[in-house]
Each structure stands twice: as structure tokens, then as C-alpha cells.
Write a structure and sequence with these properties.
Blueprint (H helix, E strand, L loop, with lengths): L16 H8 L10 E6 L4 E7 L25 E5 L7 H6 L9 E4 L5 H15 L4 E8 L18 H11 L6 H17 L3 H15 L13 H6 L2 E3 L2 E2 L9 E8 L1 H6 L7 E9 L4 H4 L3 H4 L2 H14 L9 E3 L5 H10 L8 H6 L10 E2 L4 H5 L6 H14 L13 E7 L3 E9 L2 H6 L1
Subcellular location: Peroxisome
Protein name: propanoyl-CoA C-acyltransferase
EC number: 2.3.1.176
């Protein structure tokens, strides 16, 4: 079946979901970069993922596995997530795949939109209101830094920017770089962190990206090159900032019965827990640029997550962390509990954030290298962690990875923190 034109397919053709998502990503340039994730479970299991963030329409490995989960008309609800675009884009994309009359929601929650869709899909499954939910995220971005689109109304980040400006001033640099750059400046003043610590984070992530065939950029840079690249704001240079990206991602959730019905135990990855937090009074009341940038949102979500599970931060083996800027990765180490407050510099210097250290952070290359198509990023992170847990990450595989953590944040704001593990380890071992 070809869905490159304005054609609709008959659900009775019983396409597999692999074919459905392959087709849905072909209809327009919005979907040229592909990041797909299939998530299943009442306990929430991920069962298959493929990813590409580069400018091409096919990938070398993404369809190597013939996934035959279920016909498209078994999907009960769809959650579409994007930030830049007109209303009902999800319908426009998926009507070309099949028109079953299913409910389709369109979600926008800034850079955490992909994880927000996953969060909602998980709740729908757990409530019993659907057996199978598709979360579809995509973004086609303009070149250059992010800027407001609606100048005739209040910007949702006005209060964040005003709070930052009252503490640190305001200039003509891109606003996101000021928000996160000033968080780094505060950390440096408070704890003695150096610009080299920020550069080391970017060095690590660019180095990791070399082994990720689905990364938008796959170049390694020296620490000197990173520090010498054009300065964007404060200590942040160009090679410490994520690029604008086009991309897409998808995740399918279903009840635990669905996993057993389709014999997916051998590849199922369980969502152990998932928490979302929004801004607290401290964001605006404590004159802290770190808190304006979401430190307390992340800390709150992480603490709730660990308190509801049997795990602690030190149990985590691999992390996909929202490194929109190296500054955010630095402060988030502490907010997630990966190291003590004020100890991020030591954590970096000791190599505890990469292979051979305590935990591997952003083996994919992170947003800095992999790319950051806003509506898809959360689902792309999810895909990488599933590959890691299944031992399918090739040269970037984290040895012995059994517990994975995902961190996805959007200013304005929402932070989503998630834990994953293999759902049925014995079944996986038999594959």
C-alpha cells in the first residue's frame, strides 16, 4: 500500500502497526525524520522502536524487524503531539493511514509534549477506557532559535522571563539561552562550577553521538573546539546548544492482556513509574535562575517517582536527559539525585556520567547531537532507553543496563520523569 498521496486505506486491510506508522511518516515533510516507539502495557510495556533524526526518508535498520502487533483498527484512541502548527494536525497525518472514527486528541506542552502524550496514554490504559492507544509526536521547525509566534497576546513564559531579568538582567541573545545560561551562571557562583564543566558535558554528548546512526549530528569535537565555538550567551557556546530539528516519534500503549494476547513478552519493556510536575511558587518567588529553568519541577517529579517505587537514583544504569543546553544537563544531575547538590562538577570530572562511570547519561548523544524536534523528543528518548534495556543499542550499548531513567522538560512548564525496566526478563532471555 502506498500512502504518499491523498489516499485513505481501508482498515479492513489489517495493516500491522509497523506498516501504519511507516506510512503515516511518508505523507509530508513533517515526517521526513523518523523516530518511532511502540509501547505496550497496563503495567505499560514498550515492545518495538525505530529512530532517525536526519534529513532522509528511510533508515538502514528501522524496518529490519517485521512487527505484526495488530491491525490499525485495533487502536482505540490517538494522542497527537506537536508545538508549531495549526489545530488538528494529528487528524491530517493519520487520516491518510485509516479513518476508523477513533478519538484523536492534539496535545501541546512545550518541549515535554512527547512525554505528556505518553503520560496521558498511560493514564487512559490504566483507567480501562481503551485497550490500545497510539501517541504520535512530530515537529517541523523553522531555522534559528525559538521565538514567540503570537505577539498579540500574553506569552506563557512572560513571568519566567521577568523573574530571570529581575535577577540577572536581559539582553538580545535568544531567550532560551538566557534562561538556561543564567541557571549555569548561578550554579557557577554558588558552587564554583567552571565553564569547562559545561563544555565537558557537550564533549561527552557529541562523542556519544558518533555511535548513533540515527543522530542528526555524528561529529566528535575536542574540548577546545567546544569552548572556542561561537558564544551564544554567558558560558554557553554554540556546540553546547541543541539544534532546531524536524522529526517524529510514535508510541503504542495497550493493556497487559494485549501483551500476552500477541506474545510480546520477549520484547516488552515496563514503565515502572512516571511522574509529571509543573511550576511551583519557588519558580518565581526565590530569585533563582536555576528554579526558573525548571530545577524544582524536575526535583519534585523525581522525588515522587522514587518514593512510589522500590528504586533509588543510584540504582539507575542509563539516562536520557533533556540537555537542550549543557547547562540544563548540569543542574539536572542534582535535581534527579544522580549526585548531591553542588557536586555536579565533581560528578563530571570523575567521569561518572559516561561509559565506565556510575551511570551513562545520554548515550544517544542527547538533544545536543541527536536533535530536538519538540513534539517528538520525549518519545525519541523513550525509544533509545528501550533499545538499551533490550541490548540492541549496538556500539553505544550500556553494559548490564537493567534500569533506565528518562527526563523530559518544557518551560512554562512541565517536567516528566520516567523509569523503565524489562517487563518479562525470562521471556526476553529466551529470544
Amino acid at each position: 500500500m502506498f500512502v504518499g498521496k491523498d489516499e485513505c486505506c481501508d482498515p479492513a486491510e489489517s495493516q500491522t502497526l509497523d506498516q501504519v506508522l511507516r506510512s503515516s511518516l511518508a505523507w509530508s515533510t513533517v515526517f521526513k525524520q523518523q523516530v518511532l516507539g511502540f509501547i505496550v502495557g497496563k503495567k505499560n510495556y514498550l515492545v518495538h522502536e525505530v529512530m532517525d533524526m536526519r534529513r532522509r526518508t528511510t533508515t538502514p535498520r528501522e524496518y529490519a524487524t517485521d512487527l505484526t502487533i495488530t491491525p490499525y483498527n485495533n487502536v482505540g484512541i490517538i494522542i497527537s503531539c506537536y508545538i508549531i502548527g495549526d489545530s488538528t494536525c494529528g487528524q491530517r497525518a493519520l487520516y491518510l493511514v485509516g479513518m476508523t472514527g477513533m478519538p484523536i486528541y492534539n496535545v501541546n506542552n512545550n518541549c515535554s509534549t512527547g512525554s505528556t502524550a505518553l503520560f496521558l496514554a498511560k493514564q487512559i490504559i490504566e483507567s480501562g477506557n481503551a485497550e490500545c492507544v497510539l501517541a504520535l509526536g512530530f515537529e517541523k521547525m523553522e531555522r534559528g532559535s525559538l521565538s514567540p509566534k503570537f505577539l498579540d497576546r500574553t506569552n506563557p513564559l512572560d513571568r519566567h522571563v521577568e523573574t530571570m531579568a529581575a535577577v540577572a538582567g536581559f539582553c538580545d541573545s535568544p531567550v532560551p539561552s538566557q534562561l538556561f545560561g543564567n541557571a549555569a551562571v548561578e550554579h557557577m557562583a554558588k558552587y564554583g562550577t567552571k565553564p569547562e564543566h559545561l563544555a565537558k558535558i557537550a564533549y561527552k554528548n557529541h562523542k556519544h553521538s558518533v555511535n548513533n546512526p540515527y543522530s542528526q549530528f555524528q561529529e566528535e569535537y575536542t574540548l577546545e573546539q567546544i569552548l572556542a565555538s561561537p558564544r551564544i550567551f554567558g558560558p554557553l557556546t554554540k556546540l553546547q546548544c541543541c539544534p532546531t530539528s524536524d522529526g517524529s516519534a510514535a508510541a503504542i500503549l495497550a493493556s497487559e492482556d494485549f501483551v500476552h494476547l500477541h506474545g510480546l513478552e520477549g520484547q516488552a519493556v515496563e514503565i515502572v513509574g512516571m511522574e509529571m510536575a509543573t511550576d511551583l511558587p519557588s519558580t518565581f518567588d526565590e530569585n533563582s535562575c536555576m528554579k526558573v529553568a525548571g530545577y524544582d519541577m524536575t526535583k519534585t517529579a523525581a522525588e515522587k517517582l522514587f518514593s512510589k517505587t522500590t528504586y533509588k537514583p543510584e540504582d539507575v544504569h542509563v539516562v536520557e536527559l533533556h540537555d537542550c543546553f549543557s547547562a540544563n544537563e548540569l543542574i539536572t544531575y542534582e535535581a534527579l539525585g544522580l549526585c548531591e547538590p553542588g557536586k555536579a562538577g565533581d560528578f563530571i570530572d570523575s567521569g561518572n556520567n559516561t561509559y565506565g562511570g556510575r551511570v551513562v547519561v545520554n548515550p544517544s548523544g542527547g538533544l545536543i547531537s541527536k536533535g530536538h524536534p519538540l513534539g517528538a523528543t520525549g518519545l525519541a528518548q523513550c525509544s533509545e532507553l528501550c533499545w538499551q534495556l533490550r541490548g540492541l543499542a549496538d556500539k553505544r550499548q550500556v553494559p548490564g543496563a537493567k534500569l533506565a531513567l528518562q527526563h523530559n522538560i518544557g518551560l512554562g512548564g512541565a517536567a516528566v520523569v520516567t523509569l523503565y525496566k524489562l517487563g518479562f526478563p525470562h521471556a526476553h532471555a529466551k529470544k
